[in-house]
Amino acid sequence: MRAILALADGRVFEGKSFGAGGEASGEVVFNTAMTGYQEVLTDPSYKGQMVTMTYTQMGNTGINPEDIESKQLYLSGFIVKEYHDCYSNWRATMSLDAYLKENGVVGIQGLDTRALTRHLRDKGAQNGIISTVDFDHESLVKKARAIPSMAGLDLASGVTCDKPYHWTEKLWDLEEGYTAATAGELKYKVVAYDFGIKYNILRCLVSAGCDVTVVPATFPAEEALAMNPDGIFLSNGPGDPEPMTAVIENIRKFVGKKPIFGICLGHQLLGLALGGKTMKLKFGNHGSNLPVMDQDTRKVEITAQNHGFSVDIESLGHVCELAHENLNDQTVEGMKHKELPIFSVQHHPEASPGPHDSHYLFGRFVELMERYKA
Ligand SMILES: NC(=O)CC[C@H](N)C(=O)O
To answer: What sequence ranges are listed for the domain Carbamoyl-phosphate synthase small subunit N-terminal (predicted)?
Structure first.
């Protein structure tokens, strides 16, 4: 079946439908990961976006029930060069096409994703629409132009959990799969704010020895402090951090009271809570092969990333210093407070998908809590 992708700036790509049919729209971004499409599909931070994978073949390893990062698929469209229905993997239980259909996610394949990526890189990430029902280029471009811009959108409030819950699952193990931690293994009480949290962040925290209570985005700081946690964790999530004013105000109440660790949207919200600014990047960084340097150790780690916004470190010069830097585009990849036990990263140390180079950051959070306790 025919499918069309139209961008707001008028560029149109013809392709074939896969996954669900119909019409879907969102901000089109490119992801440079070669594998891990299942984790990409279930990453809540992609809400409101349509993702094109720069790697050419997708679907080869099918879908399995274990590599999910949340309870559902969040992106609104999936754009690939070549979809492979004939999958092969020891854990696979269904095809990517069936998975997208079952979850109502519109896909398009058979288009020149290299040309699309180069276009987004040159002109910037922008809104687009995929359709298997309207084949009129002009009408599609018009619809793409009517979609609200990602800048200014608070999407995290729509993906956070309804009520607090306890998480005990540890990192996946080849022999044992997923297992739960025993109470004796969990030494540090952590309140984790869910702005669209990925499961593997929770697993990394638990495997590092944290007793994790996940709370909704608007959970009052006073109630979190009453739980007497050793540390506060701020999660990743979709959308622009700037309009989340109540959340930013709430985070400010932890500053100077508890160790804080933030990832991605959590890092951006922390930057705003500390009095800094955030900005929208031209096309951001989405992938699992992005080089980052730890400014303390001068070590380079290959990281997983998924962001369109960034913290302006100059605006935080009075309180924070740059702790990690992206070696591709020199964006701020991490910061640490000059005096308080507070740090955050823009990239995703939990990977999923991606290399485990940055897992040490969960250990750093635990060390910080240990020192603060003492
Ligand atoms: N993965 C994330 O937390 C993304 C943060 C934010 N939505 C951005 O695009 O920059």
So the answer is: 1-131
